[in-house]
């Protein structure tokens, strides 16, 4: 009998803790919609007590995708955090409160300076309080893999008796090795089954020693029924267990695990690429499943073998992870049917015929300038169109630019549009990009520091498209920006403005415009 493994995706919580991976509300909702298409069981949408922006993002995700997917968010064992989680997820059909509290001596002594019993009591009280709000509560024993086993169990026993419905065992610092971690899960599973067989045992691993996937799979073999994972393995430090690796391991080695998930594997690559696009954080080329070379065969003996039979060097086909579906690209030669199909596939309503014509016009303008239009471009086109004018008026658009470069005084002249206002200026710099970014910084009048600039070439299609990813710092926060164009100077300007607009949107979310009346 094949056992169902529950998949919780924490890209929007643990993944978003990574510097540069900060997303705005619209981007988080877009990514959550893709997670829904991927058919994850639970989305961990954020840490709502951490900021007004994160609270709003979790709330919006609960409202817009929480009809079929369970939504959770993280809280410390603190009443205010639990209230923030409850308030932000309560609109979802199946909300789950997630509480974390350390169980290792290091956490108890160094972080809390309390006795072990006192820390355990904090956890029990937090669960009891959460249960007054919702029936489903997950408790995470932070740093479980470095905890003294009998104290870990005593804590788990106490929080289950207090009402916890899921116990999540994290290898918080990626210290575990597969046989030890598997053995710990086997023992916990045995005791939990005796105490209350309905409580779900879950694991959450980090990749500090490159063992996150191996530890997660070992836990599954030893009885874990739920895994916490992220797309591309994005997460604190060296990251979390990568969703795509666990899913394909369970699928390809079904004969070894006898487990299945609900995940639609053909959506894996699309989800990975969307995350890369939104965060600007590239996947290493040799990354399993989602790296550019994951299905590329370069040496003669391998190519010869593959031509004779794919199975010689392929344990799974690229189509299984959605490689084919990535090639559906709209252009200025696409008609209304293709565009409508793309808009609806992203979950937008197209029943307003007049609005659809406006959107189609905007699409043709974009396709003329951008040549190839992907799903994420369509998503932005529609959401930008539907965003209230008040927020659009805060965003900057590139109106025109001219860059003259030489080895003496590279100079850039730029016109930006902000609402109905046109801002124009010139500046010199150490090079053409420095001049370009100097004039944009002068025009917007904010203190923005460029932290990272990366340019790469996208070889698909006959136009050589330059892709620019940047990271900027504004008011102590790091924002990423990205853009693609056949003109790399234009792509550089657009990526910089994309990052700046992210910061502007973030500021608008933190301090919403007061409602009049
Ligand atoms: C393993 C993980 O990934 S856990 C999740 C990590 N995610 C985050 O940290 C989310 C982003 N964090 C934040 O926005 C902020 O840190 C906040 C809002 C959570 C807290 O901010 P602040 O109140 O300013 O506290 P700060 O972060 O400086 O310190 C953490 C405090 O929480 C306490 N704390 C830490 N973990 C827990 C916990 N699980 N339960 C209860 N208290 C905790 C610490 O002991 C410390 O309290 P102290 O001031 O009494 O020493
Ligand atoms: C909140 C918990 C599950 C966590 O992220 C960790 O311990 O790494």
3D architecture notes:
By secondary structure, the chain is of the alpha/beta class. The protein has three domains: 3-279, Aldolase class I (TIM Barrel, Alpha-Beta Barrel); 328-386, no CATH class; 397-510, Alpha-isopropylmalate synthase LeuA, regulatory domain (Double Stranded RNA Binding Domain, 2-Layer Sandwich). Helix content is 43%, strand content 20%. The chain starts with a strand and ends in a 7-residue tail after the last helix. Mean pLDDT is 89; it is low at 459-463 and 511-517. Bound molecules: acetyl coenzyme *A and 3-methyl-2-oxobutanoic acid (KIV).
CATH architecture classification of the largest domain: Alpha-Beta Barrel
Mean pLDDT: 89
> How many individual domains?
3
**Radius of gyration over alpha carbons?**
25 Å
Strand arrangement across the biggest beta sheet: 2-3-4-5-6-7-8-9
Q: Let me know the CATH homologous superfamily of the largest domain.
A: Aldolase class I
The CATH topology of the largest domain: TIM Barrel
| CATH domain class of the largest domain | Alpha Beta
What form results from the Cα inertia axes? Answer: globular
Major sheet characteristics: 8 strands, parallel, barrel
Which structural class is indicated by helix and strand composition? alpha/beta
Number of strands: 16
Q: Can you give the helix content as a percent range? A: 40-55%
Give a list of the ligands. Answer: acetyl coenzyme *A, 3-methyl-2-oxobutanoic acid
Low-confidence stretches: 459-463, 511-517
Number of helices: 18
Portion in beta strands:
15-25%
Between the first and last Cα atoms, what is the distance in angstroms?
Answer: 62 Å
GO molecular function: 2-isopropylmalate synthase activity; acetyl-CoA C-acetyltransferase activity; manganese ion binding
Subunit structure: Homodimer.
Family: Belongs to the alpha-IPM synthase/homocitrate synthase family. LeuA type 1 subfamily.
Keywords: Acyltransferase, Amino-acid biosynthesis, Branched-chain amino acid biosynthesis, Cytoplasm, Leucine biosynthesis, Manganese, Metal-binding, Transferase
């Amino acid at each position: 009998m094949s056992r169902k493994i529950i998949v919780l995706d924490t890209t929007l919580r643990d993944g978003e803790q990574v510097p540069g991976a900060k997303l705005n509300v619209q981007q988080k909702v877009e990514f959550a919609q893709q997670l829904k298409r991927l058919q994850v069981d639970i989305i961990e949408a954020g840490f709502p007590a951490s900021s007004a922006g994160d609270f709003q993002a979790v709330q919006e995700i609960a409202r817009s995708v929480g009809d079929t997917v369970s939504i959770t968010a993280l809280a410390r064992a603190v009443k205010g955090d639990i209230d923030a989680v409850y308030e932000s997820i309560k609109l979802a059909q199946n909300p789950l409160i997630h509480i974390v509290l350390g169980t290792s001596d290091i956490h108890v002594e160094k972080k809390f300076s309390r006795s072990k019993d006192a820390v355990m009591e904090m956890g029990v009280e937090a669960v009891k309080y959460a249960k007054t709000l919702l029936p489903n509560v997950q408790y995470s024993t932070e740093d479980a893999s470095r905890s003294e086993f009998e104290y870990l169990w005593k804590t788990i026993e106490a929080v289950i008796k207090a009402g916890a419905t899921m116990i999540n065992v994290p290898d918080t610092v990626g210290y575990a090795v597969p046989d030890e971690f598997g053995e710990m899960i086997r023992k916990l599973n045995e005791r939990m089954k005796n105490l209350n067989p309905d409580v779900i045992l879950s694991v959450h691993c980090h990749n500090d020693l490159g063992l996150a996937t191996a530890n997660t799979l070992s836990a599954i073999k030893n009885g874990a029924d739920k895994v916490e994972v992220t797309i591309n393995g994005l997460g604190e430090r060296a990251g979390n267990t990568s969703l795509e690796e666990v899913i394909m391991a369970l699928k390809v080695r079904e004969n070894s695990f006898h487990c299945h998930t609900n995940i639609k594997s053909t959506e894996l690559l699309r989800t990975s690429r969307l995350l890369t696009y939104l965060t600007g954080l590239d996947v290493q080329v040799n990354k399993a499943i989602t790296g550019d070379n994951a299905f590329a065969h370069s040496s003669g003996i391998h190519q010869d073998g593959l031509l004779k039979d794919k199975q010689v060097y392929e344990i799974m086909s690229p189509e299984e992870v959605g490689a084919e579906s990535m090639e559906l690209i709209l252009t200025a030669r696409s008609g209304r049917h293709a565009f409508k199909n793309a808009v609806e596939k992203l979950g937008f309503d197209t029943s307003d015929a007049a609005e659809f014509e406006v959107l189609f016009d905007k699409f043709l303008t974009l396709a003329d300038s951008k040549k190839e239009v992907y799903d994420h471009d369509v998503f932005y086109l529609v959401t930008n169109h539907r965003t209230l004018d008040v927020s659009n008026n805060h965003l900057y658009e590139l109106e025109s630019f001219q860059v003259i470069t030489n080895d003496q005084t590279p100079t850039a002249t730029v016109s930006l549009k902000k609402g109905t206002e046109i801002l124009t200026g010139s500046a010199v710099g150490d090079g053409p990009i420095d001049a370009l970014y100097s004039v944009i910084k002068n025009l917007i009048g904010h203190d923005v520091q460029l932290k990272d600039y990366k340019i790469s070439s996208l070889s698909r299609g006959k136009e050589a498209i330059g892709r620019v990813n940047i990271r900027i710092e504004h008011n102590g926060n790091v924002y990423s920006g990205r853009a693609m164009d056949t003109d790399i100077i234009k792509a550089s300007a657009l990526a910089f403005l994309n990052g700046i607009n992210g910061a502007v949107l973030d500021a608008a979310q933190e301090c919403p415009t007061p409602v009049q009346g």
